[in-house]
Design goal:
With 98 residues, this protein is mainly α. Helix content is 61%, strand content 0%.
């Protein structure tokens, strides 16, 4: 794998702690909502995952936001799952996932 690395980008400047904390909490919440919100309500209940009306409203808002971004997304990000693997079949066959 190291043979495939031709150059290394310079490290970005460190992010100030306050900025990192301001970004991290909303990102963590969005990831939790996105993952947990996709679980069927009955499964959440069985797993004893707490899900409130506020969680449901935030998940609906996050979902709407994601759907609204689709028209401006690059075409390469719109191809996912099995279709992504079919599109990249030749590159993947070359090794190290292309």
């Amino acid at each position: 794998m190291l043979d495939a690395v031709h150059e290394v980008a310079t490290a970005p400047a460190p992010m100030p702690d306050r900025l990192w904390q301001a970004i991290r909490l909303p990102a963590r919440r969005a990831v939790w909502l996105g993952g947990t919100g996709l679980i069927e309500p009955e499964i959440r209940r069985r797993l004893e995952i707490r899900w409130t009306r506020l969680d449901d409203a935030e998940f609906a808002l996050l979902s709407a936001l994601c759907r609204s971004l689709t028209p401006v997304m690059p075409a390469s990000l719109k191809v996912t799952g099995l279709e992504h693997l079919r599109v990249r079949r030749r590159a993947i066959a070359r090794g190290l996932l292309g």
